[in-house]
Each structure stands twice: as C-alpha cells, then as structure tokens.
Amino acid sequence: MKATKPKVAQTKNTAKINALAIDVRSVDLTEINTPALVVNLFRGVKKPGGATAAVDKALDGAITRLIEDGEIKGSTGESTLIHTFGKIKPERVLVLGLGPQDKFDVQVIRRVSAEVVRFLRRKGISSAATIAHGAGIGGLDPALSGQAIAEGAYLGLYKFSTYLTKNEDSANEFQSLTVVESNPAKAKSIVSGIDLGSAVARAAITARNMVNEPANQMTPSNMALAAQKVAAEQKLGIEILDNAQMKKMGMGAFMGVAQGTDEPAKLIILRYDGDPSNPENNLGLIGKGITFDTGGISLKPPGGMEAMKGDMAGGASVIAAMEIIGHTKPKINVLGVIAATENMPGASAQRPGDVVRAMNGKTIEVINTDAEGRLVLADALCYARDQGITKLVDVATLTGAIVTTLGKACTGIMGNDDALVQQTIDAGKKTGEKFWELPMFDEYKDLIKSDVADMKNSGGRQAGSISAAMLLAEFVDGASWVHLDIAGTSTSEKVTGYLVKGATGVPVRTLAQLAEDLAAITEAQKSGIIGK
Fold it and tell me: What is the pTM assigned to this prediction?
C-alpha cells in the first residue's frame, strides 16, 4: 500500500494512537537522551555490524562479550537489556533478536516491534528510541521498515479496557517511540512508512474495538454509527438500509434471520470511488455482521456463547478496510456491504423447515437456524451484484468447521476465480496474514440439495466450511468471487507478536492491500506493462 501525501518533516510526531506517539529523528544513536535504545542482531552473528556495532563500540564491546558468553543469541524476539551507566546518553540498550537472516522479512519486524514495546512497558519504561529494523544491513525498503514498526508497536500495545473501572495498567503506558536514522533520505522514507503503518494499525484497532464490544453496545444500529464515523473521516459515501427497505428489495434470506430479534437490522453500504470514470474497475467487500448469535431456535450450547458477540467480525473488518482504503486512495472503486442483525430465538424467529427467498429469487430451506451467516451474506452478495460489482470478497466468521480444519493459524479461503484467490493470498503475504485454500469441487454441491427448495442452508457435518461456501456461490451471479472464513483467526486466545488476546483485526490489512494490488494491476494493464 502507498501512503498519500507523506510527511517529510523528520523531527515531528508522525502518528499518535491511544497513548503512543511515534516520531523520526536524524541524530547520533549514542547522543540521544532516552531511557532505552533498541538495536538488533541476527541469530548466529558473532560480531555486531551496522548501528549495533557503533553502539557496541561505545559500550567497550559489552554486546560482543554477551554474545561470546551465550547470553545474546539473536533468536526472534529475544530481548536483552544492558544498563549503560553513563557511557552513552541512552540509559539502557536493548538488544533485540531478529532470528535467522535468511528468514527475515517485514513480518518479523511487526512481531519483534510489538514484543519489544511490551517488554519495555513491563519494565516500567514509557519511552524509547530504536533503529529502523531491516533498513540497514537487512536490506529492506526503509518505508516498509517504518510501516512495520508502526503496525507492530500500535497493535502490540493494544488493550481493550473500556469497561474496567479500575485499570491497574493505566499508569504504566508506553508513550513515545523515536525511530533514529542518520541518513536524511532514509529518514524521509521511514516517516512515510510510519504514516501509512499508523493509518493501517488505527483501522485494525477500529475492527478490534468493534469486535471486543459487548453485544448490548455493538448493536446493528451502533455498528452503522461506527461505519458513519469512518465514512465522515475518510469522505466515503454511505447508505444504511432498514428492515422495511430490505423487505421491499426482496431480501428474504436476510430478513428471515432478522425476524427473531427486536433490534432493527441494517444493511450498511460504504462507497469509495477511486476510479469513477471506469466503473468496471471495482471490488466489493461483503461482511457478515451478526452482532450476537444465539443460534436462533437451533440454540447454541450455553458454554462459551458470550464469544458470539464477535460474530460480526467480518462486517467490522470490511468497515475498517474501507477506513484504510479511504486513506491510501487506490485507483479502484470499492463497495463495502455489511449485513448487520442479531440472530435471536424470539417469538417471531424463523423455524427449521422454513423456506426463504433471497433477493435474486432463489429459495433456501432453513435446516438449521444457526447457519444464519450464509443467509445474510446471500442477500448482501446479491445487492453487490445488483450494483454492478464484478469482483467480490466476502468475509465471515462462518463455520466452526474451519477451526476444526485449520485451527487459528490461518484463514480458510475458497472461491470461483483462481486468479482472485491467489491475489488475495499474495496480499496476505505482504501483510503477514495467512490463508489456506480449500477445494470447491462440484460434488460438494450435493450436500446442500433440498427436496423443497433450490438449496438448503446446512449440509451437515461433512465438509461444513465448503458446503457453506457452496451456498454463497449460488448468489455471485457470474462475478469473480472469494470467500474468507475467519471463524478461527478473528480472535486470539493468547498474546503472540502483534496479536493480543481477544479480537485480532484479521483480515482488515489484507483486504486493503488487495484493493491496492488490484488497482496497481489495472494501471499496469492500461500502460501495457502486463497483459490483460
């Protein structure tokens, strides 16, 4: 992704999210006044090089001696704190391990940047300076280094403490990070990267906050308000359809889910017109926004049901991705569609055995009311096609089966267009978000055959994630289409790298990167650099 209007001043704060501000300075490492200076080391290095060597020399070889003693190994994320006792102006030097040099990339920078700021926060240190990891002997573009440092630091420090009346950690915040680079040209690139990384992290935090909110707060109406806030900040078009409007448009699948709750449903539509003269250059991002999922009449077991407040993570990720797109301004038209409702077992709730008709006229037999996500997405996909969208990516915490299949390490991806599937996977490689493709063989369609309707909404235990995707495929009407099942990756059960316990913000950054990549492909095709 490319930042727009990068900030060129090297000494001003380039970003501030929550308590943390990040800036860039061109000064001598050993002359900067800071409680801690972060340098780095690859695994297996016996003699430091680059900036780390300069600091080692100023410390009379202290880092080299610790390497020789085996205390510093350079393993990924390893943090060794050295007190300087006045030998240089930084009060401490933290030697950060980057792991093996042949496996070093921007994802390593994101991870270690998150881990080092958390390490310093635990030590009661509220500010630090750091070299730009990878921008020297690591050989990375300085802008990518700056972006990764910002993303890692902001996402790694994230905490959701809205409802804690007594937050013991509030007095111990990490507040300031200075990236030190003596080369003015590199410093300018790092500033640009930090600007972009900060915007990306801020949007991922938008999604995290929405998913972490309790369901009595993050209702469909409040989800719409969150989208309105993003639209206002990023100057996006927005439209919000209510129950009456959706019924009039024939969204029977969506309304079937919504009829069991007193909370009004919302179809949230965000528009970014990045290439208005070329309407066929477009991308649709479709998000499942079930703000609480009881399972409906097919009631879920009570154990762990509180986690179902996060069943709107797909919708949150689309809203947040549109936030990034509004900032980066790729030359592509992007439509975000979020189907938001609760799935409740109210007196008017749909029943197993009911038949609903989607916007495109196709009928669905409801076998299991807990297979509701594919119903709301069916109408959302129809709406996007009705708007002329030719490339579709839907995002949903759709099936528990994907967690059984892939765990929480990667997102399941399926689709009808090999090129778009691969482009999404490639975008994920840039952002560090992992995807694994599952097959969409015709035989799986048999699992959703119905005797009374065009299809049924549940194929049973066999290939549960695939059969759900097979239903969605019935509503894309010839468009190129990718389905992302984030039931495993939308939350984390532990702190690891820049992921913290709770909502992850996956796949916000990948969706925005995909829009950027598709825009670049279109421009390259126009210029004849690549064929159509």
Answer: 0.96
